[in-house]
């Protein structure tokens, strides 16, 4: 550390110069995050000093966390769902698998995860000592439910389905997975970190949530399509009592026990998450999602016109293409199978799409 | 969710009403958090949309994380320390133990933790499948190093020492633990989540960090005495290469692998953490810590004058007393052994101490 402090003006000149080295979101087509909605930023600032890790001190902020869980639970067809605001999809996935592991104490536990599963499942398995069995995908990059079922055995503590896969934006056949889960009595966790705030707002939403009786838990991230601030994830469970298995005793806090993965937890990003949902309502979210889906369709159509074929017709706002060059300055990403991948987040407006297509057209002319 | 959105004015009227239900920090004497320094709040806002989970998009923010690690590593006498900004002490402790477990693959791994250890060690052991061996404390609530050493066996993957215990504010005999760690070839993790930003600024700091050759990793939280924003922890390791054992591959991101526990990670609270350290420098931090320690001494003296005896003379700014009643409105906490506990954070000013002592005096008159 410096011996003497740095004057505020010099410090912020330095910080601003660093901030300018970051890319602006307007050319980022590869991220499942997006700049926070202005409502989120305002709510975040209002709750900046709050700590949900010591709930007795911040009962108003706790009420907002409860409201977030209630709103998302209701959206997922289960107003009585248990839940809490996590640091994001990885914590949600770890905690869901931790619950599942405790519910079925076997000596060599395994989980069955689609090959399209987010890498956080590898982390979770490494941490929790779970064997990860990878279920193959069908030609449309959705999990093959029958093959997944075949991987389930007496040591399987959880089966995973994905709503809005990271690479191709697909929705797994959750209804079929739900049937398997009920039939084989296995915990079904739905990773809807991305799609959980897309699918309910589509014109024709497919069932993927607690409406399906086999679904035991759902991960959904307000800091992705919820346009919240980072970090804001949410883990929802059908049976609120299953969090009890994660409790540790917490002497010297205002509560006696806690089930969260982290201790000190920001209230700011939770307030921001709930603020956006309240501000927009179902109507507003439908409009945002309709825009993203329309832009995704326009992007696919435009790309195919210039000779870049879609890899698949996506279920949510992630588009993938058989082409390898992107114009300079733009950030696209690449799937493991080598497709160009673009996430049509809210900041990827129609104008952005047209500008990108124009430059792509020049490359592929 | 609501069908129709809520007007901004009504929404913020609601949010503000919830915020008012939270307690103000001025009467919170029980927390290891404190309102963010104004510099932290300003830096946080500047970096609100950044995501360290996708570093290639935010190279300027990544440089600030590297600067934070360098500053804290240097403060801990090891400028070449490896490290990253965690979500807080719990993640830091989990990750340190995860590294230790990987370094020594045994079939029934255990760790040795002081009885004063934070409850996050219970979480970490539960998650990682580690046996937690609890080392007893001496009469001054510091771990009995010899007893801790006696608990170490061939299956011990880590030994833990604490710098600034949560309940009594004590510093374990880290030099003795370091000797044991070297002698028995065991990974020594120091939980300095609280004390890591206190001890280096004391008039007579005791050695507790990488200066001691047996120390392998250190947890230190800018969101506690660093007056940063939540979430901001930091895990430092002597050997940067040991993070490699935690890596998972990260297709479709701008980097190829990541070793962090979470995926999407806020840049805002990292910028805030480093901003406070740069703004204050060693001088400024020494002044903050000197004030907190002076207030701690004044509190103890004042409490003893009215008949509430100290439980112990603390090493850092946590004071504990043999008395059971506190004046209404004030939030103090209680240790497992039943002592009243007060953390003299920066918001607990001399005026706050005097006001509290006055009301205590009226109760105990």
Automatic annotation (TrEMBL), chains A, B:
Identify the Pfam families for this entry: Pyridoxal_deC
The yes or no answer to whether the keyword Lyase is present is yes
Q: Tell me the domain of life.
A: Archaea
E.C. code: 4.1.1.11, 4.1.1.25
Q: Which family does it belong to?
A: Belongs to the group II decarboxylase family. MfnA subfamily. Belongs to the group II decarboxylase family. Sphingosine-1-phosphate lyase subfamily.
Question: What PANTHER family does this protein map onto?
Answer: PTHR42735, SPHINGOSINE-1-PHOSPHATE LYASE 1
Q: What is this protein called?
A: Probable L-tyrosine/L-aspartate decarboxylase
